[in-house]
Design brief:
Distance between the termini: 25 Å
Strand order of the largest sheet: 1-2-3-4-5-6-7-8-9-10-11-12
Helix content: 25-40%
Largest sheet: 12 strands, antiparallel, barrel
Keywords: Membrane, Transmembrane, Transmembrane helix
Number of strands: 12
Strand content: 25-35%
Number of helices: 5
Shape: globular
Order of helices and strands: HHHEEEHEEEEEEEEEH
Radius of gyration: 20 Å
Low-confidence stretches: none
């Protein structure tokens, strides 16, 4: 069973690996420079990799300290249903693509949405290049069992069940407002509205009802002793949302946060 302590431990390990991986281009370029005697300006190529390696190592130390603060504070408990939880917190593991974990207020992981294909070279691809290909994300419950699959394309999202049967397709429509996007599925329409800083989001029905609200930097007071980073996005889902609506909400969230901690 995943909990926030294990998340911090895994996150620390992932940051350490990212720091080490980013050293590989540095070593390669240095060997090239020393063996071929290239112009000194060639060394400028290693600066971004050095900076990222230092940043990732600092993040490793931070997550390691958080893990130590929460050590032995969790007990085994029954995992709740993700689709029945109306207020959840999102966290992200460093990865070439999406690894989004969903926690309840007790610090227990309710599920995860992650890319089904990770490749080492994707660490080095900027999002605008990696985003040229369609992506397939798995939507897993708290027991790490696949529930749904989301196939992301440039202007659409396909949703399939665990048997790979298509159950829905959402079409994405841009508007004349940079902070607003429309998603259409079945006979429904959801309007995604972003804050100017692209930190907060809300999904509205045609009637104006806010079906889901995503806020960063806001956290219920009782959660703060378990979640030591105040910048986790907190998702609030309206009580009237049906299970199918919630699945579509998470599919949209996966597209929004596809390259968080990339």
């Amino acid at each position: 069973m995943m909990n926030i302590e294990k998340y911090y431990r895994q996150s620390a390990t992932a940051y350490l690996n990212a720091s080490l991986i980013s050293c590989l281009p540095v070593i390669f370029f240095l060997v090239m420079f020393l063996s071929i005697k290239l112009n000194r300006l060639f060394l400028l190529l290693i600066i971004p990799f050095c900076l990222y390696s230092i940043t990732a190592f600092a993040s490793y130390l931070l997550q390691k300290r958080r893990c130590e603060r929460l050590a032995n504070t969790f007990e085994e408990t029954k995992v709740k249903s993700l689709l029945q939880s109306r207020t959840v917190l999102l966290s992200f593991l460093p990865a070439p693509s999406l690894r989004m974990l969903i926690f309840d207020g007790e610090g227990i992981a309710l599920g995860e949405i992650r890319d089904e294909k990770f490749a080492l070279f994707r660490w080095y691809l900027p999002p605008f290049l990696d985003g040229l290909w369609s992506k397939k994300y798995g939507f897993y419950n708290g027991e790490d069992m696949l529930q749904y699959q989301f196939t992301m394309r440039k202007h659409s999202i396909e949703i399939r069940n665990r048997k790979n049967q298509l159950i829905s397709k959402m079409d994405e429509k841009k508007t004349d407002k940079a902070v607003q996007t429309i998603y259409v599925y079945d006979d429904k329409q959801l309007v995604l509205k972003r804050s100017l800083a692209f930190t907060d989001y809300c999904l509205e029905k045609e009637s104006g009802l806010i079906l889901a609200d995503v806020k960063k930097g806001w956290m219920p007071k009782g959660w703060q002793k378990r979640f030591l980073d105040p910048n986790h996005p907190v998702v609030s889902i309206h009580h009237s949302a049906a299970d199918k609506d919630i699945i579509h909400i998470y599919a949209i969230l996966a597209k929004i946060f596809a390259y968080k901690d990339h």
